[in-house]
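User: Just a sanity check before I run the rest of the batch. Below are the structure tokens for the first item. I only need the designed sequence back.
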């Protein structure tokens, strides 16, 4: 059958619905018709789902016994459970439109046990699942029979997985499925990322065959308008959080003028705060405003998603939990609270409006402090140039590999020599050597039921801090909260969670029992690890905005015009660096002697650089420092003078011996020990406990430290230990970015300014240092006093 005849049912269905196939959709259909595997890259809301779903349905149509295709034909992988229902709706629509008698099923951790058992007896033709649930299927001894009719595997939102261990987990599953059913086709769907070619290589490994792979890129350019919400007055000395909520009234006309609005915050705590505040200033939104974040119960989130889809909600305050979505969701307006710290994240969120082919996406940026307006200008420039971050794929993740070996041993077992060759076909383990493998010959099987139970309970690569379930006394489930926060409360104290004022009754069996409270004041929960670091690519655009402040042609840019008072004071008290300059400031205050610099490389890189420069200084002259940093710069504070000149600063900011010096300065052993705990959990060395009977965090920490010390002392070449050090350097210290930053600084002129007081650039770093020590009320009082002194 020719491609034209083969695709005719789909073309007829599209025409019936008054749709016109996009060029990239037709390319994908033809590639799958010809047996190719590949990667599809297209903007959000342009029809990616039907580009890959439809041709696999056409394959079903073209078979002679089309209405009774045996068993599982297509696996659709989604990175988050929330997308499964939407994909199911799209698949159901296509199946009915093409006249296929196929069943569609969802298999995730949210599904009832009886439904999962029923699926094992009679699998649907299309299964929508997550990487974790797919691996759980592999623990079933009958998995070769389950997958034997498989025609294709589609990995949705591949850009969200490639840079994490879930991507490694997915590669291992794809290698297995490709070996079981060599004719099955592997496809991925990805938004635009900076290393899209590499993303295809990671997805397809060597198990798909180099001669039968394609990368299809949409020629549709997504139109995005970026609007910055400008404050009426900009503080001369800005600090993180001094705007934001104070400009909330500017959101009122945007929300009221739109049918539906998504208001993105960067943390769950911010989400809770903004939801509560918006209800206070727009009481008429009661019943039309909702909240959505990952710690809320699945039932509440499902209700929010369905209500948003049906158009019964006016606005939703959310986090990254609503970053992802499938085609045609009706959202008019997007508002971003504070900098998203990454270009790709910003584009992903912007794309949720105008979420259809050719639609215009509109996003409003509300800065939480003045300097974030420069980030807004930087983001607009990045969007115009279509520059996004690369997602670096992790390799040699031995914790994931150890977990996978147990997964395979729980199924039909494995022979080490055959499994070694299969694993080496993945991008992540292509460099795995026979010496590192060293698995004894034979057939490896797990027969112990307790081992099997513990493994299935802890499968996956996402390791989170211990959480407790939040429930009403009568049993209604609200979501989860971290142990460290709830342990700071006493019975009777009020906190806000999931938009409710709750009074703590007691903690019982890993459950926080609460009742509703009429109190208006209460603590807002916070979650560990919520802060996002500035990406390298956005940092580059931000530096360009700083350099462009010297260009009078940019004075008409709204953000630059609004920042004029701040820019003038920075120029008077210090300087605005040019492209060939690296600004370092020195000043004295009541706190002591300050040295500040501004690489604009992000918090994690600055943490490493701060420790490195302090260590190098102490080698020249013994001196102690407190170090503070934000995404823009670093502050060293000492109670004795910090004597530096341009020549010494050249030595301090040199790339010479960076790798040995950084390991000594940052105490890489401590960082590696912290990384090792997650590695030990993923690999199965640490077991976190059973549902309702989780092990306490301090016990897990002690056990993880003990394993680390034993390996350190008696098995220093242990692969999990080596991995811990590599991850600490790559992900925590971002050593490669430190190197790039120092190389750039080496090619710049050191601009050392001795100032008579703190500058607008230095002030937010100082405030961040104080934030760690003071309550919110005391911090605001302290800031007022500091500002008054500086403005004299």
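Assistant: Here's the designed sequence for the first item:
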């Amino acid at each position: 059958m020719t491609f034209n005849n083969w695709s005719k049912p789909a073309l007829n269905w599209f025409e019936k619905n008054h749709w016109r196939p996009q060029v990239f959709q037709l390319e994908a259909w033809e590639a799958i018709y010809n047996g190719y595997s590949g990667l599809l890259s297209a903007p959000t809301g342009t029809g990616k789902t039907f580009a890959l779903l439809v041709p696999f349905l056409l394959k079903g149509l073209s078979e002679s016994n089309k209405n009774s295709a045996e068993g599982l034909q297509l696996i659709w992988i989604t990175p988050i459970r929330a997308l499964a229902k939407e994909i199911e709706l799209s698949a159901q629509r296509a199946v009915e439109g093409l006249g296929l008698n196929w069943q569609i099923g969802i298999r995730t951790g949210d599904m009832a046990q009886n439904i999962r058992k029923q699926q094992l007896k009679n699998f649907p033709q299309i299964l929508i699942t997550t990487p974790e649930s797919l691996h759980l299927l592999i623990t079933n001894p009958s998995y070769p029979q389950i997958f034997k009719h498989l025609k294709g595997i589609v990995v949705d939102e591949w850009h969200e997985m490639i840079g994490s261990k879930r991507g490694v987990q997915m590669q291992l599953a794809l290698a297995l499925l490709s070996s079981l059913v060599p004719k099955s086709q592997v496809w991925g769907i990805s938004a635009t990322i900076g290393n899209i070619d590499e993303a295809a290589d990671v997805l397809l490994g060597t198990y798909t065959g180099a001669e039968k792979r394609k990368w299809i890129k949409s020629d549709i350019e997504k139109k995005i308008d970026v609007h910055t919400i400008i404050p009426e007055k900009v503080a001369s000395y800005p600090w993180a959080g001094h705007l934001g909520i104070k400009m909330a009234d500017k959101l009122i006309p945007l929300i009221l003028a739109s049918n539906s609005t998504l208001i993105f915050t960067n943390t769950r705590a911010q989400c809770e705060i903004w939801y509560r505040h918006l209800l206070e200033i727009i009481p008429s939104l009661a019943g039309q405003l909702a909240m959505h974040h990952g710690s809320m119960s699945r039932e509440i989130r499902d209700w929010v998603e369905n209500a948003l889809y049906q158009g019964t909600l006016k606005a939703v305050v959310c986090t990254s939990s609503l970053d992802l979505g499938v085609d045609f969701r009706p959202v008019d307006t997007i508002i971003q609270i504070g900098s998203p710290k990454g270009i790709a994240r910003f584009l992903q969120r912007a794309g949720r409006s105008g979420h259809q082919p050719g639609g215009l996406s509109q996003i409003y940026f509300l800065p939480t402090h003045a300097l974030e307006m420069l980030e807004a200008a930087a983001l607009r420039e990045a969007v115009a140039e279509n520059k996004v971050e690369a997602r670096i794929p992790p390799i040699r993740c031995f914790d994931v590999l150890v977990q996978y070996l147990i997964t395979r041993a729980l199924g039909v077992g494995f022979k080490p020599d055959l499994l070694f060759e299969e694993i080496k076909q993945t991008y992540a383990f292509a460099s795995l050597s026979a010496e590192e493998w060293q698995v004894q010959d034979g057939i490896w099987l797990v027969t112990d039921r307790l081992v099997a139970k513990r493994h299935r309970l802890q499968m996956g690569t996402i390791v989170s801090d211990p959480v407790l379930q939040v429930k009403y006394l009568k049993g209604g489930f609200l979501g989860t909260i971290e142990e460290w926060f709830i342990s700071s409360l006493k019975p009777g104290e009020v906190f806000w969670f999931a938009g409710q004022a709750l009074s703590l009754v007691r903690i019982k069996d890993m459950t926080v029992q609460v009742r509703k409270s009429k109190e208006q004041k209460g603590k807002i929960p916070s979650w560990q690890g919520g802060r996002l670091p500035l990406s390298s690519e956005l940092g580059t655009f931000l530096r360009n905005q700083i350099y462009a402040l010297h260009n009078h042609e940019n004075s008409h840019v709204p953000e630059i015009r609004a920042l004029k008072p701040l820019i003038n004071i920075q120029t008077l008290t210090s300087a605005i660096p040019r492209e060939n300059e690296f600004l370092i400031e020195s000043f004295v205050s009541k706190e002591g002697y300050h040295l500040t610099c501004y690489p604009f490389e992000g918090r994690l890189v600055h943490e490493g650089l701060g420790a490195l420069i302090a260590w190098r200084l102490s080698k020249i002259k013994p001196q102690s420092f407190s170090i503070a940093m934000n995404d823009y710069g670093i502050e060293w504070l000492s109670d004795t003078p910090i004597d530096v000149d341009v020549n010494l600063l050249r030595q301090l900011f040199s790339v010479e011996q960076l790798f040995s010096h950084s390991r000594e300065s940052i105490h890489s052993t401590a960082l590696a020990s912290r990384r090792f705990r997650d590695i030990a959990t993923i690999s199965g060395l640490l077991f976190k406990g059973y549902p309702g009977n989780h092990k306490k965090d301090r016990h897990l920490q002690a056990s993880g430290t003990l394993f680390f010390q034993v390996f350190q002392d008696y098995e220093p070449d242990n692969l999990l230990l080596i991995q811990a050090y590599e991850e600490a350097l790559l992900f925590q210290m971002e050593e490669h970015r430190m190197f790039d930053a120092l190389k750039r600084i080496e090619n710049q002129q050191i601009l050392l300014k001795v100032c008579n007081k703190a500058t607008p650039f230095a002030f937010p770093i100082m405030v961040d240092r104080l934030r760690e020590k003071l309550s919110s009320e005391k911090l605001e009082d302290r800031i007022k006093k500091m500002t008054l002194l500086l403005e004299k």
